[in-house]
Amino acid sequence: MKIVHVHHHYWPVVGGLENVVKALAEGMAKLRHEVHVITSQYGAENRPREEVINGVHIHRVKAVRLGYPDLTYPLKVPRDLLRNADVVHGHSQNSLFTVKVVEEAKKLGIKTMMHFMAVDALRDHPNALVRLLGPKYSNTMLKRALGIADVRLARSLRDKALIEGRFGVNVEYVPDGVPRWFIERDYLGDAFRSKYGINGDYVLYVGRLHPLKGVDVLIKAMSLVINKIDLRLVIVGPGERRPYMELARRVGVDKHVFFLGFISEEDKVGAIDGSIGVVLPSISNYVEVYPMIITEAWARAKPIIATMVGGVLYRVKHMTNGLLVSPRNPAALAEAIVTLAEDKELGRRLGAEGRKSVLTWDEIVNKLLSIYSGG
What we know:
Keywords: Glycosyltransferase, Transferase
Strand content: 15-25%
Number of strands: 16
Structural class: alpha/beta
Helix content: 40-55%
Oligomer: single chain
Protein name: Glycosyl transferase group 1
Order of helices and strands: EHEEEEEHEHEHEHEHHEHEHEHEHEEHHH
CATH class of the largest domain: Alpha Beta
Strand order of the largest sheet: 3-4-2-1-7-8-9-10
Distance between the termini: 14 Å
Organism: Vulcanisaeta moutnovskia (strain 768-28)
Low-confidence stretches: none
Pfam families: Glyco_transf_4, Glycos_transf_1
Shape: globular
GO molecular function, one term: glycosyltransferase activity
């Protein structure tokens, strides 16, 4: 089967959706399908316009960008490639690049798939201009994408429910997976602690250092936590650390918070293994469509403490596979952290329950291939 994936970013750009497209493309190529990715040159300006990596044919086309990555527009669409495809799979209806390329495939009579995400998720954005204009743009793109997709897919049950309820169309739920090794790898917690010099219990945050991710709320919560128990916070992920380090110092938890920046996948497994649980303190629907860190924590049988935003509510069930708290609430977050720290058996039970829902990328790839072929 000749399969074309479309998104405005691809490797070497690293991010949630970029990693998803890469996992799907390489997984399908390993099964001897002819797999292509149409993407823009943004983030890969030093790479060839055409290359093959791990069996995947990458086509970086010239594009223009109006500030935001989603507002990337292709100046050239490789129609000859689309014309010979069996299926064209677009990722994110919010991406102008994706919608334009899939639209061209539709005109050529090629079977089209669209993976929908972050539907109606900008209404709580902290930026007033984004709150004003974002919903209008996203609603326009949603309707446009629905019109060109032969098959509609959703990464989250939230987006599936919203689209089916509003438009009365069928949407296939195809979530993200993890590599099989992520589940099967031996325990790495002790090695991680030794490498980074972390002693004692800690909770873990993995993600960007971004205002919408609620890292400041988590640091403030830690100032309440350490008044009750001896606990540390390990923060893993890219972004500007300085404002968060200054906040930690102001609230008196700087000696309890470890900023590790970007770490390897193996070290991430160790960070999860060594923790008492993973905290997801986000404050906006937009940034938590299908949080991969939930899947990764559950893959290692670790519990999640998460705020009730985006797709989280459709996955984390309070006191069943995790703990839920309201966003922007340091006191509620602190209470949940203390609960988990003081009841290790609860953490084991929540993590074990979460692990039951984890799928591997092999399983996701096979499901998509069945959908492609009409199965």
